[in-house]
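Two proteins follow. First one:
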Amino acid sequence: MPPIYIAYLNRLDIEELEITDQEILAAIETSLAAQGRGDTVIEPRMHLEPGAANGHFNVLRGAIKPPIDRAGVKIVGDFVDNYKLGLHSELGILALFDPRTGAPQAIMDASGITDMRTGAVTAIGAKYLARKNSKILGHIGARGTAYWNVRLLDHLFDFEEIRVHSRRAESRNSFAERLSRDLGKKVVATEDWKGCVEGADIVVEASRLDRPTPMLKTEWIKQGAFVVPYGTMSAIELSLTDIMAKLVVDDWGQCKGGKFGSLRAHVEAGKLSETTLHAELGQIVAGLKPGRETDSETNLLWHRGLSLSDIALGHAMLEKAERIGVGQRLRFA
């Protein structure tokens, strides 16, 4: 048997890549279009709850046809109390494989990939479903994915006003300070949910609730807004879907089942179903279904997180690492 080598990229390697906002967005938009055309294989995520702490593992699996031409599996933990230990709430690895032989090709830190690709899906969703002149962003949550939500959304929209909120004052204030420094503009940390989201053009809910609680009120959402709720536990009222012109998800297969998700109650109540669903985001990106059609539409995107996004961004990072000589090469067999 010929020797098999795998690339290994740790967190420091991925930071050294200095991947740009546009490189992230391009990789994710490419993968979404491939999904919309049917050039992918994706299976619903699986959960493992070890019962040893307040958290669980997500296992995501998929494959993308050429030109990406890779299969992958990501295992990422989601442990709410990790901040008490000085750790990120989401830690994980991505393994990439040759889809024709099954040979492993790479093992990569997936924490940064998870944050970046989540923010990119939020931003690409806004590209197709938000008003082009959106100027006010209201963002709930300050965890790892939150930073890339705001950063990549601002890359596309150059907001005039950015508001952020999270439960702990020190968290939201430090988050606002980091964003202000990195984006070069003022970011306001609000003291409550209403002050953050009321009247905003784009609303992102990435809260960290212990149990489903309707914290985000439907009456705060203005007509024509774009709303992205994706907290693990639902923070929205059942009535939120009633005001939406278009309900869009990233993958209906994994949205319609499972224990977790911000719109789980809406699925169970029949408010989000194959009948009420407008499209998967990939179908819109591929041009098979329309995105926003009028400024008056109030639209919603619920994304659970796609293995395809992880694979596509991992692929882009791996190719860049090979070009500039970052990472390690390990003998597998």
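Second one, unrelated to the first:
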Amino acid sequence: MWGQRRERAGGGVSEPVRVLLVDDDALVRAGLGMILSAAPDVAVVGEATDGAEVPGAVSQHQPDVVLMDIRMPRVDGLAATETLRSRPGAPEVIVLTTFDADEYVLRALRAGASGFLLKDTPPAEILRAVRRVAAGEAMLSPTVTRQLIAHVAAPAPPSRSRAAQRLDQLSERERDVAFGLARGSSNAEIAAELHMSIATVKAHVSRLLIKLELNNRVQVAILVHDAGLA
């Protein structure tokens, strides 16, 4: 069912980005709903109050993007993200937090989230993040990436070695693109740096995701950092 949603959502560029809000705080949901509903190209299609409600809400509302609170009483956003992103055709996930360098955020990104937002992020930035993630881009700046990686202990040598071995299967050009992702660069920035078209960058990203068996570009960035190559 989720795979059908993704195909339908990609069928027309005029369709608004469908967003599901997941937060146990009614005021947070109301505030986000007001911000997102004010944009003509974004539609809030549903809400959930706990991670346990996410699978049913996704099946019912068919969102393109889920704004997911991390800390909820029964099933937290980390577990909900892991469950959601493990299924084919899953929507993109942006995690919500009150901390800008939180170990739970990094774990959510490893689980397949495409980025995170602080709950006091300005409205314009929230809209930009939703649009960017819906378009297949990550929304982690280089500064944020460094903060998150530095917040947890560096990988032990065996883990670093395994990460490096996974990257060894990439072609030279794919590695160049992977390093660009690790710096938080957009497709356009990588294209300019490597003197290739944006379409070629997208093709390289798709191939390296398949080779590395990862969900999105954020996980590629984390893998490069784990290998000690960033």
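SUMMARY FIELD: Residues 21 and 47 are 5 Å apart (CA to CA). Strands lie at 17-22, 42-48, 65-69, 92-97, 115-118.
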